[in-house]
Write a structure and sequence with these properties.
Chain lengths: ~240, ~240
């Protein structure tokens, strides 16, 4: 099985602590991978990277195709070459899909890129809303985030499985975003029912963790990671 | 300040859980950096990489120059270009040296390569002893590890500062090894008094985390990270 490489800019821990300033351009990010997730400057929505194109699912429910100059405070992308594929032919709830994915992963000790394309009878997403400075902690911003639902929709789930040891660096377990085929609906995936679709997986051999070393807020801040585990559980599940 | 790149093979968390099998050759490791630390297959001593050469400080107190075929389960190396230097001209205890280093680091939110060359009036190191399968957890192996002391010795401290968020992936804070100039004394640094010397630092912009994906024990194991924080505190400080 060919192993892949994951590139992460910033950390989930930094994002949870309120580091929402964009520090890497979409243009630079897309050089590092063609599939992935993240957020946009000022926590302005959910980032979805699919097949080399970047989309922003905003708090008002709209989707914007990004042009390249926009900046991200946190994002993870991989150059995806599916190494394992699984077809699901019957209606399957989110937990059961995740269980099938996990059973077919090469290991739970490495990161994995996860992609599910198909028809969904139900999808529920959230999209964080743009924040103003001074930025709150993510858990506070996430408490008022809008949620959106769709039924009978074709689309793609994209994201990563993160091994337990890397909780805080990223979100341990599955961290998945969604974008509909018509690019009109998407966000951070909260729940879904898959009607039929294809799961693709690739394990990650190398994670390239990049820090925003030119950002004074990141470099100078005494980052408060208190309650990080609990805040991730509340905001990212 | 020119920022560097850190390459880490395996994780401290995996090592703490008893993953002691060597999974990357010294030859391959040295392609990734010329300064660093780690351990050797079967937890057979402390690895010290200085100026592109690798040394093994074994549990019997001897130092072996490694040839390249030897394998490591865990190591971190950087291509080091000092971006900050500080000369210490008077006798200074370990804690005060570390405090001076920390005050001069560009940030505590990024990894930093730390090197101190000089004359030491006192150095205390430990060197873990080779383990047999089935491997214990590192904290158990470390409870019986031999310690060694030297006085009036010239040598080099090499290692890394790891930001708090990466505790478990590596050892948060300073993780330092020592090698004497005559290559006869070294190991995991426990304590020292510097008479005079030069501190060199370089911040790390990118960490390349490599996983031993060809190792069945790593891939198949349900790694037990219980008490990881406490075990690192006991075994790595």
């Amino acid at each position: 099985m060919a192993a892949g490489k994951l590139y992460q800019h910033g950390t989930l821990g930094g994002l949870m602590a309120g580091l929402f300033e964009g520090t890497l351009s979409i243009h630079e990010l897309l050089k590092k991978g063609d599939q992935g997730i993240g957020t946009v400057d000022s926590l302005d929505g959910e980032l979805i990277v699919l097949d080399g194109a970047a989309f922003q699912a905003k708090g008002d429910g709209t989707i914007t195709a990004l042009k390249g100059e926009e900046k991200v405070p946190y994002a993870a992308v991989a150059s995806f070459e599916p190494a394992f594929q699984l077809t699901i032919k019957e209606k399957t709830a989110a937990d059961a899909v995740k269980q099938q994915i996990q059973e077919n992963m090469s290991s739970t000790n490495v990161f994995q890129t996860v992609k599910v394309t198909g028809t969904f009878s139900y999808v529920r997403v959230r999209a964080v809303e743009k924040q103003e400075k001074p930025y709150p902690r993510l858990v506070e911003a996430a408490r008022t985030q809008p949620e959106f639902e769709a039924e009978k929709i074709k689309g793609t789930i994209i994201g990563f499985y993160t091994p337990e040891l890397f909780q805080g660096v990223a979100a341990a377990g599955f961290h998945l975003h969604f974008l509909s085929d018509d690019q009109q609906f998407g966000g951070h995936l909260l729940d879904f029912t898959l009607d039929e679709g294809q799961v693709s997986l690739q394990m990650i051999e190398t994670v390239e963790q990049h820090f925003p070393v030119s950002n004074a807020t990141f470099m100078g801040n005494d980052i408060d990671y208190a309650n990080l585990q609990e805040e991730i559980d509340e905001a990212e599940k």
